[in-house]
Amino acid sequence: MTASNDTLTIEESGISFGPFDPELVYPIENSALYEKTNQKNGKVQIAEFILLKDVDKSTSKAKFMWMVEAKSSSPAPKDDSSKRLESPFEVYMEKVTSKLSNTLQLLISGAIEIKIVLVIKDHPLEWLEPISDSLKKKLAPFARIWRVKSENVVVINEEMAKKFGLASSVP
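Below the sequence we write its predicted structure tokens.
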């Protein structure tokens, strides 16, 4: 990434992207949000950068948000009649799609704190903690991308839901 006084250029996979107005590009791979997401459990793969396109100067609103992923090559797409799921092209496409999906989720996750609540009707209190622990483990990759704190993944019963104002006393 190269920055001058009024432009930003991003070098990735042998391609020079830009120059861009720094106000319109977000190099997400170099962001604090991305670094924070990867601090705990490994690296979440994301796109190179986000670019706002077709910005209306009078309103400062962009018509498009481009998520840009760069690759130096790709396997040849083949018309594979056997539809092998593990063909090099399919593996490649899965990685690219995953990076783009992760990027969008990471961007959205920075906007608001998320709480995940599972409410189980008439469930005994002593069963809630083991279910909560299991849910936290199963949701770990999702929670990391969406920046959901461990304490924000909870399992409660209907009575607790009423106390939190989630459920009403009237059926």
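Residues 39 and 144 are 9 Å apart (CA to CA).
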